[in-house]
Design a protein that fits this description.
eight-stranded parallel barrel; globular; single chain; 18% strand; 13 strands; 10 helices; alpha/beta; 280 residues
């Protein structure tokens, strides 16, 4: 089986040593990085980051993607904030920052990717207001263009993820931006299935499957409507058993566990076992 499986590190533990022990037990040799020791990756000193990179390399663990908070912030024209974001975990990142700070964070993210020998960075579509702004790119075009130019020069691919608190959230919004292409302005689609269900929009399974087939990088979690919470994959309302048989060219997909089950390792292991059973 050539399908790539990875886990976002702080879904396992804040401690990289615990992460590596767990990955070995589960037979997974790739990790995606978001925060270490409770600190967002972009706020960690580069000396410490180099030590973390060396530690992963010594233990033969590769980094699939830098799970950055880039563009999970307010646009230049909206820095007042709103109560909507208080319901979401920003993983220690401050969304109310200056243009100068945004550029600095982009530079840091690119440096981190190179440090960890990683060619992928996750970004967002900026924090939404009462309604989605599907012109989010134009509202911060100078900064998006800076990222895309610099990433292209460094051979790093940019992945844009759907997120309930951001402008790109629901299936219709994703379809409007991406159409039938897996790339929008040189930003590839990173599809988070659980986040779509979190929005409680009416799901057309055929449309969802078409998005899954279009994307190559997919975040996996499960959501329970009755519990109003993320749960172990297979225990929620997302019909993975009927979705997976419809995925085309599944061996080329990258499935990343982002279960949001509070570092509950037995639950995470059950999620991994469930997905492996679907992969065959």
């Amino acid at each position: 089986m050539n399908t790539h499986l990875s886990i976002i590190n702080d879904e396992i533990s804040n401690d990289l040593e615990v992460c590596i022990d767990y990955l070995r037990r589960e037979g997974i040799n790739q990790i995606d990085l978001r925060s270490i020791n409770g600190v967002n990756l972009l706020d960690i000193d580069e000396v410490d980051l180099k030590q973390f990179a060396d530690y992963l390399k010594r233990n033969n663990i590769s980094v699939g993607m830098i799970i950055s908070p880039l563009f999970k912030w307010y646009s230049q024209n909206d820095s007042t904030g709103n109560s909507f974001v208080t319901n979401f975990d920003l993983h220690g990142f401050n969304p109310q920052i200056t243009t100068e700070s945004k550029i600095q964070y982009i530079q840091k993210a690119l440096n981190i990717a190179k440090m960890f020998n990683c060619d992928k960075i996750r970004i967002f579509s900026m924090i939404r207001g009462d309604t989605a702004n599907l012109d989010f790119y134009l509202s911060e075009q100078i900064i998006y263009d800076y990222l895309l130019t610099q990433s292209n020069e460094n051979n790093i691919s940019i992945y844009l993820e759907n997120e309930p608190m951001c402008n790109l959230s629901k299936i219709g919004e994703i379809k409007t931006i991406y159409g039938n292409s897996a790339t929008y302005r040189n930003m590839k689609l990173l599809l988070d299935i659980g986040s779509i269900y979190f929005t409680r929009e009416k799901i057309n399974q055929g449309e969802l499957i078409s998005l899954i087939n279009m994307a190559t990088y997919i975040h996996l979690k499960d959501f329970s409507y009755s519990n109003n919470a993320y749960v172990t994959i297979g225990d929620g309302d997302i019909p993975y058993k009927s979705i997976f048989p419809s995925i085309i060219d599944i061996k080329r997909k990258n499935f990343v566990f982002e279960t949001h089950t509070q570092q509950d390792l037995p639950s995470l292991s059950k999620s991994i076992q469930f997905v492996r059973s679907l992969l065959g």
